[in-house]
Amino acid sequence: MAGIWKTPEAGEAVRARYAEFLRYWPGAHEQRRLATSQGETFVIASGPQGAPAVMLLHGALANSVSWMGDAAAWQQHFRVYAVDMIGEPGFSAPSRPPLASEAYALWLDDVMAGLGVSQAALVGISLGGWLALDYATRRPGRVSALALLCPGGVGRTKNVLLWAAPLLLLGPWGQRMVLQKLGAGAIAANASPAIKAFGDFMGLIQASTRPRREPLPRFSDRELSGLSMPVLAFLGAKDAMLDSCGTRARLTTKVPHADIRWLPDSGHFLVGHGAEIGTFLAKALLP
Asked: Is residue 243 part of a domain?
């Protein structure tokens, strides 16, 4: 079976760049490597010991750098754990067990045990949103709240490869076109060096990593109806990867207590909602 990296050298380049980014993680933090059933898992822990736990789950073709902009605020009030998902371009094991199995829930069981956490709020982006929902439907008593950005597994998944694959063959220009169509937008010429470096890093990840091709399992009506914890969901109406209208309809009917934020001008990449998520977490977790 092919690994997650297109070449060993590509994997080394991504990991080296990732290590450089992590030098600038905001505030005091720990970098931990936990033994799990799927191999080693990398976690960045920050915030006061004993505070309510919040676990951050990034999307596909990404790693915990996704959370650097929000961690500084959230770790003031919560014990925050940014987890590198297995099988993605971070420091966790390259294992990709079948999505349509209990393997990822068992893996998160191991992660939580290694962290000494019995219950946590889950914040997930895209594939990380699917992972959060998968865990919440299987282990509802262990999830105190759910904050989801463009979560997979609810609405229909669109066939992105039909239009993205030809563009990705065109090098950096094609990679930029894919990101723009997904809603990331072009990086402005006057953007900060940090933003430009992040954009370059995302381009390197796209060029270096084999994407998952396994269909994303959809949650049943029964599974969604069993979500009794507080739920917040952000959905971009122009999402090129997921059927946001379908996601909104199913959450509205099957999780009627969910707070759904509909973003008519946004695509799949959703940024700038850290304050809203922080308010939601405070209401759900703090006395």
From this structure: yes
